[in-house]
Amino acid sequence: QKEVEQNSGPLSVPEGAIASLNCTYSDRGSQSFFWYRQYSGKSPELIMFIYSNGDKEDGRFTAQLNKASQYVSLLIRDSQPSDSATYLCAVNTQVTFGNEKLTFGTGTRLTIIP
Amino acid sequence: DGGITQSPKYLFRKEGQNVTLSCEQNLNHDAMYWYRQDPGQGLRLIYYSQIVNDFQKGDIAEGYSVSREKKESFPLTVTSAQKNPTAFYLCASSIIRFDSNQPQHFGDGTRLSIL
Q: Is B100 on the interface with A (CB under 8 A)?
């Protein structure tokens, strides 16, 4: 079973600080990595995606990927109370050539403390 | 506005009853997906389809059925064989590109409960 693991939290971060969310995955063949934000009772919303090793920045969000260590992270700078949500990590899993699906982690619940 | 529409938002099922959840997208996306989410859990894939008239089982397909007669539509039927159907059901869609795995975008979901 190909797995994606996240610390379930809750992770509490003071307002204005950096929140760091981590995810590890077991399938070395994975090529695409996604972070989704899910507010309580709502559907997931795409935040970031990353395909290459290194950092990718979008506003206050930075995704970091290290394929050798099978590790992907999401940094949220200047955390705001509106960032309080569950963050889901998703990794592509190749079933057959050209036929891929996503495997989701169970999510990390983030709380920003005013 | 382009998007993914799921209906109904809430659905109640009686014992022995089949129910169908609707998912429609006007994004011209090739692939569509159905997930189930239980409280405090991640998303588990039920079925997915990359092309009209073709679909594949996901990790938890037992007790569910789907059809893909049109590119825009991917309805999910929860059959009476699914003994624990209470969950949040999410439909997603994505473009297919063979050089990279494209993000999936989600509808607002349907909450299914047992009466």
A: yes
